[in-house]
C-alpha cells in the first residue's frame, strides 16, 4: 500500500491546479474524461460520483500511474458545482485504507469472536444461497430481511426481492429523516426529499433550528449558505451549542435542549396574533387555520420563556425578522430529525411555520424540485407476498411510510408477527446506527444467517456469519443517479481504478447470488454496462456519453410559482393542513403540542450529537486522509460546568450514562459555546471492532451510550438525544 500523509495530501491538492494537462478539461466541459502526460507521469481523468456520504456529488478522479491520485468536483454537476466537500476530497483515502476487507470471510468460531476463514466468492455465495434456501423452505422468504444504506445495495436488494423478501429497512428513515418526511407530508402532502428542496441560496432570512450546516457538510447546501451569507441574508440559529452556522448568524438562540416545540409555538403565536403571516397564501391554500390559531392562543413568548430559556423580546424580534423577508424566509427543515421521540410533531411545527411564510414553491423558500425521466429496464415481476411486513404489525405507528429498522429488529427478537431468521446488511453499521446495542445483539443471536457487505471490518461485520468485501465507489459501476433537484440531471458512477484485492461491486454480488438462488432470469443483461446503456438509450442518451461527461443535465423546468411551477397538495383536504383531521382521527394532536422534556438527573447532562466536517459517521474512521485531519472526537462541556467538576480542556474523561454504561476515554473541549445542561459529541467514533485496527477505540461512541430511547408514536422513529451522562476523569 502506498502511504499518503496528510501533508503530502495537502501538497497534492495545492499542486494540481497548475498541472496544465489535468486542468484543461475545466474549459472543455464536454470531455471530462481524458488521458495525458503530467510531470512525467501518465494521468488519466475519469468522472464518477462520490459515496463518502449520500449526497452523491459528481467529481473527476485523477489516476496517476494506475493509482487514484486525487478527486475534484465535476463542474457539470449541479450538486457539487465543481467543488467537493473535505470528505469527498479525502475520498481517495478509501482506496488506501489499510483496513480494507480483501476477501470473503466465513465465521468459524462463535459469533462476534473474530475467528474467520478466508474463502472464494463461489464458496461464500454458495453458503449464503444454501442458507437462504433453507430459511425460505422453513419460514418463507419474508423471514430474510435486509438493512441497507447507499447506492451499492441496489442490486443485492433486487436479488432479495426476486427471492421474495419484503422487509427492507434503512436506518436513514427511523434513525434519521423519517419524522421530517412524515411531518411535512402530513402538512403539505409531500416531503422534503433528498437532496432537500431548500432554496437556501435565494433566501433572505434563514432559520436553522438544530440543523448545523458547515459541520453537516452536505455540499450544495454549504455552498448555497455561503452565497446567502455573502448576499447579506439574516441568519437565525437555534442550537444549545454555538455551531459553525451560529457563527454566521445575526441571532443565536441557545435553547435549553429538547424544548424546541415551545419556541416554534411561541414564534407562530407572535406571527399569527400580530397578523404577520402570508394571508393570501393561507386563505387560498390553508385548511383549518382558525382552529390552528385558536390552539396557539396561549402559547405566548412569556409562556415559552421558562421552558426554552429564550427571552420573550428575542422570540418576538426573531419572529418579526422572519415575517419581514417572507416569502424568501426559509426555516430549514433539518435532516436528522430524531431527537426526543416527539419529532414528527416538531417537524410538523417547522412545516407550519414555513407555511405561515407562504414559501412553498417560492424563491428563497421550498422550491418545486425537478427530475429527469429515465425508464427502468424491463424485468420479471417480483413474487407477491401474502404476509404483511414485519416491522409495524397492526400499523402501530400509523404514519410510518417506510420500513422501520428498529421494528424489523423487534420482530427478530420476538419472532412476531413471524420469525425473521436472516439479515442481509449492506452499507450500514447497525451497531453504531441503531439505538441500544444490546437489543441489536439479542436480535442477531436469533438469526440463522447474518451476511454483511461492507468495505472495512466494521462493528456489524464483526457479528456476521459471512462477510462480503465490496469494491469501494472508485472501483465500480452502480445504478444511475437520477434524483430531484433544482435542475434535472443524471449522473454515472464508473470504475476509476480496479479493486486492489478480491473485492467485488454490489451489482456483481447481486447477480452471482441470484444465479446461485436459481433467479438468473432477474438479470437478463450480460453485464452492468449493457444494463446502464439500455436505460440511458431509452432516455435519449448513451453510456458512452455519460462515461465521458459524468453528468448530463436535462432541460430547465420551472421550480418557482413565479415562473409557472404547479402547486397542489396531496392531503385529504387538498390544502396545507394547519389542522389535521388525519392526526385527530388517529388519536394524535391535530396541532402540535409541547410536552416538557424529562429533567436531567442530578449531576447529569443530556448527551447530544451531530457531525464533524471531515467525517461521515463511522464510515470514514479508517480513511487515512480523514483521520489525519481529525483523529478522534471530543466532548464539549460548558466551561463553568467543567470548572465545577475540576476538569480542564484537554483532559481525558469517560462518560457514564444513566444505565451504568461507560464510554472509551475522550478528550474534553471546555467551552462557552455549549448550554450547561448538555454535553456534545460527534457521532461515529469509538469503534469496538478489533479487526478495524486503525479505527479501534479512537474517541468515544455516542451510540454505545444510547441505551434509552423513545419511539415516536406517529412513525416509529427512535430518539437519539434521550440519554444522560456524568463525567469521570480518566486516570
Ligand atoms: N460532515 C458530515 N456531514 C453530514 C453527515 C456526516 O456524517 N458528516 N451526515 C449527513 C446526515 S445522514 C445527516 S442526517 C445530517 C444531519 O445534520 P443536521 O440535520 O444538520 O443536524 P442534526 O444532526 O439533526 O443536528 C445536530 C445539531 O443539533 C443541535 N442540537 C442538539 N440538541 C438540540 C435541541 O434540543 N434543539 C436544537 N435546536 N438543537 C439541538 C446540535 O448541537 C447540533 O448542532 O448531516 C449530513 N451531513
Ligand atoms: N447514536 C447515533 N446514532 C445514529 C446517528 C447519530 O447521530 N447518533 N445518526 C443516524 C443517521 S442520521 C443515519 S443516516 C444513520 C447512518 O447509519 P449508517 O448508514 O449505518 O452509517 P455508517 O456508520 O456510516 O455506516 C456505514 C457502513 O457502510 C460501510 N460502507 C461504506 N462505504 C461502503 C460501500 O461502498 N459499500 C458497502 N457495502 N459498505 C460501505 C461503512 O464501512 C460502514 O460500516 O445512523 C443513525 N444513527
Ligand atoms: S457532500 Fe461531500 S462526501 Fe457527500 S457526496 Fe458530496 S463530496 Fe462526497
Ligand atoms: Mo442521516
What this model shows, in words?
This protein has 24 helices and 26 strands. The two termini are 37 Å apart. It is α/β, with parallel strands linked by helices and 731 residues long. Helix 6 runs parallel beside helix 19 (506-516), helix 12 packs across helix 13 (312-325) and helix 15 (405-414) crosses helix 17. The strands form 6 sheets. Strands 6-5-16-15-14-7-8 form a 7-stranded mixed sheet. A 6-stranded mixed beta barrel has the order 21-25-22-24-23-26. Strands 1-2-3-4 form a 4-stranded antiparallel sheet. Strand 23 and strand 24 (666-671) form a beta hairpin. Among the domains are: 13-94, ADC-like domains (N-terminal domain of TfIIb, Single Sheet); 192-368 and 564-585, Dimethylsulfoxide Reductase, domain 2 (3-Layer(aba) Sandwich), CATH 3.40.228.10; 605-729, Barwin-like endoglucanases (Beta Barrel), CATH 2.40.40. The site of one ligand MGD has 33 residues, from strand 21.
Q: Which SSEs are present, and which pair or pack?
A:
Elements (H helix, E strand, L loop, with lengths): L5 H11 L3 H4 L10 E5 L2 E9 L8 E7 L2 E7 L12 H4 L3 H4 L8 E3 L8 E3 L2 H19 L4 E5 L5 H10 L4 E2 L1 H18 L16 E5 L9 H12 L3 E5 L12 E3 L6 H14 L5 H7 E2 L1 H8 L4 H8 L3 H14 L3 E4 L10 H14 L48 H10 L7 E5 L3 H4 L3 H8 L4 E6 L4 H4 L3 E4 L11 E3 L5 E3 L14 H11 L11 H11 L4 H7 L1 E3 L22 E2 L3 H5 L19 E6 L13 H6 L4 E5 H7 L6 E6 L8 E6 L6 E5 L41 E6 L2
Parallel strand pairs: 7-8, 7-14, 9-10, 9-13, 10-11, 12-20, 14-15, 15-16, 21-25, 22-24
Antiparallel strand pairs: 1-2, 2-3, 3-4, 5-6, 5-16, 17-18, 18-19, 21-26, 22-25, 23-24, 23-26
Helix pairs in contact: 5-19, 6-19, 7-14, 9-12, 9-13, 9-14, 12-13, 15-17
Amino acid at each position: 500500500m502506498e502511504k499518503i500523509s496528510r501533508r503530502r495530501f495537502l501538497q497534492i491538492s495545492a499542486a494540481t491546479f497548475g498541472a496544465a494537462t489535468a486542468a484543461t478539461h475545466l474549459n472543455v466541459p464536454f470531455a471530462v474524461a481524458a488521458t495525458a502526460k503530467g510531470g512525467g507521469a501518465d494521468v488519466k481523468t475519469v468522472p464518477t460520483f462520490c459515496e463518502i456520504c449520500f449526497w452523491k456529488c459528481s467529481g473527476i478522479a485523477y489516476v496517476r500511474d494506475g493509482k487514484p491520485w486525487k478527486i475534484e468536483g465535476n463542474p457539470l454537476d449541479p450538486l457539487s458545482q465543481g467543488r467537493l466537500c473535505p470528505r469527498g476530497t479525502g475520498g481517495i483515502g478509501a482506496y488506501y485504507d489499510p483496513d480494507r476487507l480483501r476477501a470473503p470471510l466465513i465465521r468459524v468460531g462463535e459469533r462476534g469472536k473474530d475467528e474467520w476463514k478466508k474463502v472464494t466468492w463461489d464458496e461464500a455465495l454458495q453458503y449464503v444461497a444454501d442458507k437462504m434456501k433453507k430459511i425460505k423452505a422453513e419460514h418463507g422468504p419474508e423471514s430474510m430481511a435486509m438493512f441497507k444504506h447507499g447506492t451499492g445495495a441496489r442490486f443485492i436488494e433486487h436479488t432479495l426481492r426476486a427471492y421474495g423478501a419484503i422487509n427492507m429497512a434503512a436506518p436513514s428513515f427511523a434513525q434519521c429523516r423519517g419524522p421530517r418526511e412524515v411531518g411535512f407530508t402530513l402538512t403539505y402532502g409531500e416531503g422534503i426529499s433528498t437532496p432537500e428542496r431548500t432554496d437556501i441560496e435565494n433566501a433572505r432570512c434563514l432559520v436553522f433550528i438544530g440543523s448545523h450546516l458547515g459541520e453537516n457538510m452536505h455540499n450544495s447546501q454549504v455552498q448555497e449558505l455561503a452565497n446567502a451569507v455573502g448576499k447579506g441574508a439574516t441568519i437565525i440559529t437555534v442550537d444549545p451549542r454555538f455551531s459553525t452556522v451560529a457563527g454566521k448568524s445575526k441571532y443565536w438562540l441557545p435553547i435549553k435542549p429538547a424544548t424546541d416545540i415551545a419556541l416554534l409555538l411561541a414564534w407562530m403565536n407572535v406571527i399569527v396574533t400580530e397578523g404577520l403571516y402570508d394571508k393570501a397564501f393561507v386563505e387560498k391554500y390553508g385548511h383549518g387555520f382558525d382552529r390552528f390559531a385558536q390552539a396557539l392562543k396561549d402559547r405566548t413568548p412569556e409562556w415559552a420563556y421558562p421552558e426554552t430559556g429564550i427571552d420573550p423580546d428575542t422570540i418576538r424580534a426573531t419572529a418579526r425578522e422572519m415575517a419581514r423577508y417572507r416569502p424568501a424566509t426559509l426555516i430549514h427543515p433539518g435532516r436528522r430529525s430524531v431527537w426526543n421521540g416527539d419529532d414528527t410533531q416538531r417537524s410538523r411545527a417547522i412545516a407550519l411555520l414555513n407555511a405561515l411564510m407562504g414559501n412553498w414553491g417560492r424563491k428563497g423558500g421550498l422550491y418545486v424540485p425537478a427530475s429527469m425521466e429515465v425508464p427502468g429496464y424491463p424485468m420479471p415481476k417480483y413474487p407477491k407476498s401474502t404476509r404483511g411486513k414485519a416491522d409495524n404489525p397492526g400499523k402501530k405507528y400509523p404514519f410510518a411510510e417506510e420500513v422501520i429498522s428498529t421494528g424489523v429488529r423487534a420482530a427478530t427478537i420476538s419472532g412476531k408477527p413471524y420469525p425473521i431468521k436472516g439479515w442481509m446488511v449492506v452499507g450500514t453499521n447497525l451497531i453504531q446506527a441503531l439505538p441500544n446495542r444490546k437489543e441489536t445483539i439479542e436480535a442477531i443471536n436469533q438469526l440463522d444467517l447474518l451476511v454483511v457487505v461492507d468495505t472495512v471490518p466494521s462493528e456489524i461485520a464483526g457479528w456476521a456469519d459471512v462477510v462480503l468485501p465490496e469494491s469501494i465507489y472508485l472501483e465500480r459501476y452502480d445504478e444511475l443517479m437520477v434524483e430531484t433537484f433544482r435542475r434535472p440531471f443524471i449522473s454515472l458512477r464508473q470504475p476509476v481504478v480496479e479493486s486492489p484485492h478480491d473485492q467485488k461491486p454490489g451489482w456483481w454480488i447481486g447477480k452471482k447470488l441470484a444465479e446461485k438462488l436459481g433467479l438468473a432470469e432477474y438479470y437478463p443483461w450480460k453485464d452492468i454496462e449493457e444494463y446502464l446503456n439500455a436505460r440511458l438509450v431509452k432516455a435519449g442518451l448513451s453510456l458512452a456519453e455519460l462515461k465521458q461527461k459524468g453528468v448530463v443535465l436535462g432541460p430547465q423546468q420551472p421550480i418557482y410559482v413565479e415562473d409557472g411551477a404547479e402547486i397542489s397538495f396531496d392531503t385529504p383536504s387538498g390544502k396545507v393542513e394547519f389542522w389535521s383531521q388525519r392526526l385527530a382521527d388517529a388519536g394524535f394532536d391535530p396541532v402540535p403540542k409541547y410536552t416538557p422534556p424529562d429533567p436531567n438527573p442530578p449531576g447529569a447532562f443530556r448527551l447530544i450529537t451531530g457531525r464533524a466536517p471531515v467525517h461521515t459517521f463511522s464510515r470514514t474512521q479508517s480513511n487515512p486522509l480523514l483521520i489525519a485531519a481529525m483523529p478522534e472526537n471530543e466532548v464539549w462541556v460548558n466551561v463553568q460546568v467543567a470548572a465545577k467538576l475540576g476538569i480542564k480542556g484537554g483532559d481525558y474523561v469517560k462518560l457514564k450514562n444513566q444505565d451504568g454504561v461507560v464510554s472509551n476515554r475522550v478528550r474534553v473541549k471546555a467551552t462557552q459555546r455549549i448550554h450547561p445542561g448538555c454535553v456534545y459529541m460527534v457521532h461515529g467514533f469509538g469503534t469496538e471492532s478489533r479487526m478495524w485496527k486503525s479505527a479501534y477505540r479512537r474517541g468515544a461512541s455516542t451510540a454505545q451510550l444510547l441505551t434509552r430511547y423513545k419511539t415516536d408514536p406517529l412513525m416509529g422513529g427512535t430518539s437519539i438525544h434521550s440519554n444522560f451522562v456524568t463525567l469521570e476523569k480518566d486516570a
